[in-house]
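re: ur question from earlier - yeah i can do the single chain one, its not a big deal. heres the input i used so u can compare w yours
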Amino acid sequence: MEYEIKQQGKFKFVEEGEGEPLILLHGLFGALSNFHDLIEHFRASHRVIVPLLPLFDLSLLDTTVSGLAKHVAKFVEARKLENFHLLGNSLGGHVGLVYTLKHQAKVKTIILTGSSGLFENGMGETYPKRGDREFIRKKTELTFYDPNIATKELVDEVFEIVNNRIKAIKIIALAKSAIRHNLGDELKDIKLPACLIWGKNDTITPPMVAEEFNSMLPNSELHWIDKCGHAPMMEVPQEFNIILAQFLAQHKG
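and the output i got, formated as tokens:
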């Protein structure tokens, strides 16, 4: 299903359904398709909001995790949002944590899946040569437990990004910023209920990362999904949505 992309000033976003707000933050190679099943499931009970993060539109100086968190803060103000659930996958989780550390009063709960912020394996030591589609296919497949989830359309999306010089530079800048911006010393300050939903076979933010988050976030619970990689909401949406629905039900109203 194609969603209407709405615009308010400089902000682009998708908004579906009514109820308590549930904000979804996508990752470095995230697209709306990553959240399709999640949006479809929760639009019946929640106001699901997906801000399109300006991964390629900020100045190089602001192309950082903090820069994206500032964008989220301005978006939240513009939409007059408060008391919302905040969910982030991969880099989106990292951005959500940085936002929450500064605006904890606005956030009701935080949900992380495959989040960076402590440790992540990115593209590896060698960034792909432009034009090396086979390399991109293999790297995209590593995101998932089942390599068939990396469809031709998904590989084409990633391939287009890394073959655009400006976009490639911005992706590298964000990846380096994520590695530098380690949150190990600050997570104890997030007192909100936190739900960690992790693929047991995640090779990008491995299981030990989930365990570290769980030990450092004082009010967190950790849920494992077997035979699942870095994007559980995309690879095993039904199982993911059941866990998330139970967590949101506990913190409703």
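The chain has a mean pLDDT of 93. not sure if urs matches, ping me
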